[in-house]
From TrEMBL:
Organism for this UniProt entry: Acinetobacter tjernbergiae DSM 14971 = CIP 107465
Keyword Phosphoprotein in record: no
Protein name (record): FAD/NAD(P)-binding domain-containing protein
PANTHER family with a match to the protein in the record: THIOREDOXIN REDUCTASE 1-RELATED-RELATED
Keyword terms of this UniProt record: Flavoprotein, Oxidoreductase
Domain FAD/NAD(P)-binding: 3-279
GO molecular function, one term: oxidoreductase activity
Length: 294
């Protein structure tokens, strides 16, 4: 079937991108593999009118509201291949079926590459977090850990005392002495002993057998674009110590004509409110391109 716009990703950014297109009565397909980035977290915070709501419920309500528009189709499945064709793009879903669209919005999210520390992955989104604005308040100014795993860790450690009593675990990661001095002025303790494992709720077992009890831990993951078809499509990619993201302009256009990107896939560091805002911009931009750039 031929669509005006195909949106790959049915989470916050993708749903937001679809809404202005649906309200313009454009034919839209949303393709979703059902794996939100924040699926490990029960609650979402910081989004106006939805602060503290279940993350899954925000998506489900948005999906129901979107599908009330008759020009929107929902495709459950994983995109395997995207190719440029005459008049737009062909999208192969689950290697079993395909659709075509004049425009493409990528809202497929990213994969978090976590430090290889025993006990960390199973606590991700529950007692180990990536964003203090999203999860710091609920720690009630308790004891907070931050594990150094990227250049961004020291920056976050400078911020975290606003949310609690902070310890930076270097875990053999190099941090400049100047930064350590700055952290001291913020009251951040620096722990140089190696981490052996995360145990209990969010306690750190050190290599010497000592245990530091914490109410929560923050860690910077590396954002990875796990979809091979993004690279094959030819989108320009931004890379730094935080990971990878599709490069876009202010209107969320990528380097490939007719392709837009929004949400975490196009932003190094994100949140639900940012994803929703990015999605709205991408949807409006895609609609306007159908009118002015045909």
């Amino acid at each position: 079937m031929q669509y005006d716009v195909a949106i790959i990703g049915g989470s916050y950014a993708g749903l937001s991108a679809a809404m202005p297109l649906a309200r313009a009565r454009r034919k839209v397909a949303v393709i979703d593999a059902g794996q939100r980035r924040n699926r490990f977290a029960v609650h979402s915070h910081g989004f106006l009118t939805q602060d503290g709501s279940k993350a899954s419920e925000i998506v489900e309500i948005a999906k129901q509201q979107l599908l009330a528009y008759q020009t929107v189709d929902w495709e459950n499945g994983r995109v395997k291949r995207v190719e440029k064709v005459e008049g737009g793009f062909a999208i192969c879903i689950d290697a079993t079926r395909s659709i075509t669209a004049k425009r493409l919005i990528i809202a497929a999210g990213i994969t978090d590459q976590l430090p290889e520390i025993l006990g960390l992955a199973e606590r991700w989104g529950k007692s180990i977090f990536h964003c203090p604005y999203c999860h710091g308040y609920e720690l009630n100014q308790g004891k907070i850990g931050i594990i150094a795993s990227s250049e961004h860790a020291a920056h976050m450690a400078m911020m975290l005392p606003d949310w609690g009593d902070t310890t930076l675990f270097l875990n053999d990661y190099p941090v400049e002495e100047e930064l350590l001095d700055q952290l001291a002025t913020r009251g951040v303790r620096v722990e140089k002993r190696l981490i052996q494992e995360i145990i209990g709720h969010s306690n750190v077992l050190l290599a010497d057998g000592s245990v530091i009890q914490l109410d929560g831990i923050f860690v910077t993951s590396k954002c990875i674009l796990a979809q091979d078809w993004i690279f094959k499509l030819g989108c320009e990619i931004e890379k730094n110590s935080m990971g990878q993201a599709i490069k876009t302009n202010a209107m969320k256009e990528t380097s490939v004509t007719g392709v837009f990107a929004c949400g975490d896939v196009a932003r190094l560091g994100g949140s639900v409110p940012l994803a929703v805002g990015d999605g709205m911009m991408a949807g409006v931009a895609a609609h306007r391109s159908l009118i002015f750039n045909t």
